[in-house]
């Protein structure tokens, strides 16, 4: 029995199809959405969503954080930004990471929520570089 | 009575105006189609977000310490208004409507003794409000200038609003934008974003056999992440609607301008022909009476 998976960015629907399993990067560890999974909502970190069909990966998308909403029959991934893996660019992500690291250095070290946010963005940029095939951070 | 030469010049100028307005109408029609497609493409995300929010709202209902984005600051003193206008004119009453509604709202809030702050989006609204309420404007953001609106524009605006809220600069935030009814009509609409009106009567949430969700990490954590994103999504939706409305309004305005130009040309041509005929008749009378006098 397949599960309906939708990957949606604020601007459009990137992927909508029934697959056997979807593995996504949860904030506290990777999670697989399968049919009859208990209903669950989770936060995503930057990473790759893998869609499985007949035991092998058919599609890969990079998501830069977001949310996922799973029920027994469907799984909706609300990505802050989603890109097909082939469209990723190592250089662009590297530039972004460098800028983020600079602003992390400059940031007020007492402002913990802002620092956490920056950390998360940096993690997402590093994951993007890795997903694009660049050197692992 | 204008001379023939003058009339010819005026007909010429009205004709070229008509060409321009009809070209603008075509451009607006093409842009409108694109804007509508984008607005539709953005809908699934907003729908899914609403579903998640109502689910979360249900399971956190009644808990204390809810995020300020949801409950507001508990006060109702300082209002932040975000009027959304276009960067360009020639769109009929599109911008004037927003400006009028904004002005009335400012007057009403001030009469109630509230403090009003403005964060206009789009050049036209900013230009108008600067004239009368320059001291109320805290910041302004230019629109996309008729180009396509990226989500990042809405995200920036949302972040700006959230950080102002966190600094305690306002209590209530309202967006004033043109809701897109159809190509012919847009309604100026006030939409309160903070405190947020939770979507209570959602079909999913209302179902008694709706599944009980697990949340990871916690409900509060999720809610505190979802709310700013929801603000951005709502802003994005209003921006897209406003953009589609702008093109619709411009299309309608340019359509009637083209029609008016056509009518003006007809009228001028009639006057031109009559004048020409009178001139010929006059000349003939002169020639004939001259010949008779000999």
UniProtKB/TrEMBL annotation, chain A:
It is a peripheral membrane protein. One of its GO terms (cellular component) is endomembrane system. It comes from the Bacteria. InterPro entries: ATP_synth_F1_dsu/esu (IPR001469), ATP_synth_F1_dsu/esu_N (IPR020546), ATPsynth_dsu/esu_N (IPR036771). GO terms for molecular function: ATP binding; proton-transporting ATP synthase activity, rotational mechanism. Residues 4-82 form the ATP synthase F1 complex delta/epsilon subunit N-terminal domain. Keywords: ATP synthesis, Cell membrane, CF(1), Hydrogen ion transport, Ion transport, Membrane, Transport. It is found in: Cell membrane; Endomembrane system. Belongs to the ATPase epsilon chain family. Produces ATP from ADP in the presence of a proton gradient across the membrane. PANTHER family: ATP SYNTHASE DELTA/EPSILON CHAIN (PTHR13822), ATP SYNTHASE EPSILON CHAIN, CHLOROPLASTIC (PTHR13822:SF10). HAMAP family: ATP_synth_epsil_bac. F-type ATPases have 2 components, CF(1) - the catalytic core - and CF(0) - the membrane proton channel. CF(1) has five subunits: alpha(3), beta(3), gamma(1), delta(1), epsilon(1). CF(0) has three main subunits: a, b and c. This is ATP synthase epsilon chain. It comes from Gluconacetobacter azotocaptans. The lineage of its organism: Bacteria, Pseudomonadati, Pseudomonadota, Alphaproteobacteria, Acetobacterales. The gene is atpC.
From TrEMBL, chain B:
GO terms for cellular component: plasma membrane; proton-transporting ATP synthase complex. It holds the Pfam family ATP-synt. GO terms for molecular function: ATP binding; proton-transporting ATP synthase activity, rotational mechanism. It is a peripheral membrane protein. The keyword Ion transport applies. GO terms for biological process: proton motive force-driven plasma membrane ATP synthesis. Signal peptide: none annotated. SUPFAM superfamilies: ATP synthase (F1-ATPase), gamma subunit (SSF52943). Its main location: membrane. InterPro entries: ATP_synth_F1_ATPase_gsu, ATP_synth_F1_gsu, ATP_synth_F1_gsu_CS. Keywords: ATP synthesis, Cell membrane, CF(1), Hydrogen ion transport, Ion transport, Membrane, Transport. The keyword Ribosomal protein does not apply. Produces ATP from ADP in the presence of a proton gradient across the membrane. The gamma chain is believed to be important in regulating ATPase activity and the flow of protons through the CF(0) complex. F-type ATPases have 2 components, CF(1) - the catalytic core - and CF(0) - the membrane proton channel. CF(1) has five subunits: alpha(3), beta(3), gamma(1), delta(1), epsilon(1). CF(0) has three main subunits: a, b and c. Belongs to the ATPase gamma chain family. This is ATP synthase gamma chain. It comes from Gluconacetobacter azotocaptans.
């Amino acid at each position: 029995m397949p599960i309906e998976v939708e990957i949606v960015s604020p601007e459009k629907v990137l992927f909508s199809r029934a697959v056997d399993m979807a593995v996504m990067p949860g904030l506290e560890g990777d999670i697989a959405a399968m049919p009859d999974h208990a209903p669950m909502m989770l936060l995503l970190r930057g990473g790759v969503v893998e869609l499985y069909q007949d035991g092998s990966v058919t599609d890969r998308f990079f998501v830069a954080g977001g949310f996922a909403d799973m029920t027994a029959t469907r799984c909706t991934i609300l990505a802050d930004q989603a890109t097909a893996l082939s469209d990723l660019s190592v250089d662009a992500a590297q530039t972004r990471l460098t800028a983020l690291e600079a602003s992390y250095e400059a940031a007020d070290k007492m402002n913990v929520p802002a620092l956490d946010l920056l950390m998360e963005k940096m993690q997402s940029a590093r994951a993007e570089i890795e997903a694009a095939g660049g050197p692992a951070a | 009575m204008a001379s023939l030469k003058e009339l010819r010049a005026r007909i010429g100028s009205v004709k070229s105006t008509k060409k321009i307005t009809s070209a603008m109408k075509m451009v607006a029609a093409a842009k409108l189609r694109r804007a509508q497609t984008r607005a539709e493409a953005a809908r699934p995300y907003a729908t899914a977000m609403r579903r998640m929010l109502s689910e979360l709202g249900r399971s956190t209902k009644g808990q204390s310490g809810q995020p300020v984005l949801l409950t507001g600051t508990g006060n109702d003193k300082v209002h932040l208004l975000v009027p959304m206008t276009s960067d360009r004119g020639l769109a009929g009453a599109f911008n004037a409507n927003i400006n009028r509604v904004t002005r009335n709202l400012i007057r009403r809030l001030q009469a109630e003794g509230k403090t009003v702050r403005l964060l206009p989006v789009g050049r036209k609204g900013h230009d108008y409000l600067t004239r009368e309420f320059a001291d109320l404007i805290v910041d302004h953001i230019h629109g996309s200038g008729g180009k396509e609106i990226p989500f990042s524009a809405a995200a920036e605006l949302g972040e700006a609003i959230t950080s102002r809220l966190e600094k305690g600069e306002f209590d209530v935030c309202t967006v004033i934008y043109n809701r897109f009814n159809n190509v012919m009509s847009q309604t100026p609409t006030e939409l309160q974003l903070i405190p947020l009106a939770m979507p209570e009567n959602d079909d999913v949430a209302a179902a008694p056999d709706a599944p009980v969700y697990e949340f990871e990490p916690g409900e509060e954590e999720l809610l505190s992440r979802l709310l700013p994103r929801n603000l951005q999504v709502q802003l994005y939706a209003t921006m897209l609607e406003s953009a589609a409305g702008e093109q619709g309004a411009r299309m309608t305005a340019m359509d009637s301008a083209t029609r008016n130009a056509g009518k003006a040309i007809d009228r001028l041509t009639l006057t031109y022909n009559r004048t020409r005929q009178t001139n010929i008749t006059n000349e003939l009378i002169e020639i004939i009476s001259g010949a008779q006098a000999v």
